Sequence to fold (890 residues):
Amino acid sequence: MTKWVYSFGAGRNEGRAEMRDLLGGKGANLAEMASIGLPVPPGFTITTEVCTYYYAHERQYPADLRDQVAEALRRVEEAVGARFGDTHRPLLVSVRSGARVSMPGMMDTVLNLGLNDATVDGLAAASGDARFAWDSYRRFIQMYGGVVLGVDHHRFEEIIEHVKLDRGVIEDTELTAQDWHRVVDGYKEMVREAIGRPFPQDPEEQLWGAIGAVFGSWMNQRAITYRRLHDIPSEWGTAVNVQAMVFGNMGEDCATGVCFTRDPSTGENVFYGEYLVNAQGEDVVAGIRTPQPMSKARAKPGERPMEEVMPQAYAELCRVREVLERHYRDMQDIEFTVQRNRLYVLQTRNGKRTAAASLKIAVDMAREGLIDEAEAVRRVNPGALDQLLHPTLDPKAPRKLLSKGLPASPGAACGAVVFSADEAELRAAKGESVILVRIETSPEDIHGMHAAKGILTTRGGMTSHAAVVARGMGRPCVAGAGGITVDYASQQLMAGGQVVRAGETITLDGGTGEVFVGSVAMIEPNMSGDFATLMEWADKVRRLRVRANAETPLDAETARKFGAEGIGLCRTEHMFFDPERIGAVRQMIMAETERGRRDALSRLLPFQRQDFAELFRIMAGLPVTIRLLDPPLHEFLPHSAAEIAEVAESLGADVAAMQRRAAELAEANPMLGHRGCRLGITYPEIYEMQARAIFEAAVEVARETRKAPVPEIMIPLVATRRELEITRAMVDRVAQEVFAETGYHVEYYVGTMIELPRAALTADRIAEAGDFFSFGTNDLTQTTFGLSRDDAGKFLPHYVEKGILPKDPFVSIDVEGVGALVRIAAEKGRAVKPELKLGICGEHGGDPASIQFCEEIGLDYVSCSPYRVPVARLAAAQAALQGGGVDRTA
Ligand code: PEP
Ligand code: MG
Fold:
């Protein structure tokens, strides 16, 4: 018999922390906490396997599930001394989702389940508080009505508003038991009208309705979007946790809150969190009332810290903090409730944190001896490092303050104001920087939050939806900026007499909570301190070398600053677009004779020599891979009549001839046409000029610095060995010429990109003619899939969304197909030439999952854009640790 249900805290604890795949994170941790003696209300977890079963069997449950649930429920009843549906001592439960990894706010929750027209009196009698009982009942109908019965939440709010108006009160807290009773009557009537049957009174029926809704919410749109953004497979499913209710809203000696064992924004080792007296969990998250701080140290004048208000429960919570951090050896995010001064822990999980906090916590914990250095390296998500490498506001830059809110997620962002998530997504897709401005955000907004550079809300605290989600995504966020009024209808925001309209620019400082009108200058991030420490630990364990794709001196300098160990790809064509040079480039491509081309090339030579010399100087002896011209010539064509006339004049040709030549050069499928080494073979003078520029520059820098650079000359788009032989012979000949002319010799290598399937499949033949391979996985992905990277946007997102492809293959390597070719080429190449150097220079060189693959097949280096160099260093270290058989999920 399959065990579908696991009890916790109810006389027995059947789960453990390691069982998160089966019990979900929440269920596994509840079981673990109960087993180490922490105060957890009893309950049980229905496994993720039931979710999988449910979707595989047209939303049916396994036959024996009901009996197992009944048995587990009986144990909970015994543990708390109350019974489900009992009119004197009714048991009430919460029903919550809980996937393997937490997906905050994405799925459904129902609280206070078990209330009906009879048990509400039981609750009133048991608690001695009729107002509380009727308030709980209306909360239950509202939540259950929304989540399970699909009734629009506005319809509930209208009824409350109506009763408040009638009674002439403003706050919910002013409503009496009778008022809530009226609200309940109104709710029931409205629900009956909305769904065509009465609100379910039978607690059994309520329970199964809620369980079904939680499983159903695994496939709601926001959960699907969240999974796509976080690479969570839909097969994982969610568990359902049913747990005895405890109440934080039974009076002034009750409270509910959320706390973190360390500061999730900065990583500082201080107890951090918020709580609300006389409230239920959703009040904290919804941001309707302003939560109060936990500790005196963090309280501002006028605030009422829990340490003062509930000293006994606070002391107990501090003990729980210690126990949990030592037990899990990671920063915890804890949900708690205080019922009549007694503390209950409702949830613990590894806390979401900003990149800065993740770095600080990992380094601090290693120093405190909680974890070792290798574990610290594993703890930091390489992708999140990106956030730390981005600019912050320049303290000296002039600025005009608009308003101030809470510093909810650090980093600075600047962009055009938009007021809806859809608009944010739309404009970001066009390459615009936008700031999403909302009164508050909800899970429906996550696509827009992701697309935006920053998020501003006017309501909600540090644990509001906007704050939590923005931190997780690494978007700067200012939350709860109450001084700003947002008017969606007129598409503008106002603060202190200033008006900002949609489309106008604002700047956010997520570290201080400030909002500025217009754009404010930013400065580069600091890469010392914890960042440097973690990088040092990563470098100690990594095997793969990390180089950068760079062609400008600025890129090369940035790359070195970030720790690049050379240049893995210098795309020389990028140097051709400079306004000073484009004239000569156009003259070269439009010339119909070799002579004409050579003339133009001789004008380009000094520029290229200077470019290469500068790169060699900056890289000071590190390897520099220079790729000879790759794109089809028509990319450089003159377009306007004036440009054509200018080229015609420089060549002494007429405009009509130039137009004819332009038509000749145009290609239907340019990325499959006259490009790469095909150009170098048909117009050898182009590669000769580039080779000459490289060697002359190398000699110049070798003489000047006494530190000879070692150029690695790379031939693009090679399909056959013969192509490499021909182009290599050209390069070798020019090298000998330059060495003879200068009387100076430098070491150099000639290799090729492997970016065509034919090259990969015949890599053993090609290796004989080259010194190194660099996998051009951008082109290799295009040519393996038969899919143009410029046109992929039309359908690829759909493929990824529907799971037809697990990920965008231009972002993360398709291990099965493209990866197979890379693996074959690496093996074939090394079989004939063991010393063959192997690297990767496609975009995948900066993608952590692809780097893992590069480690597995034993490449020598990865090359990526300068800003991703630290990401790649850390990912390479993690890959090396994993290669050593270390479990990364710990
Ligand atoms: C590649 O194809 O992977 C590559 C690095 O070259 P490019 O992107 O310039 O075609
Ligand atoms: Mg390429």
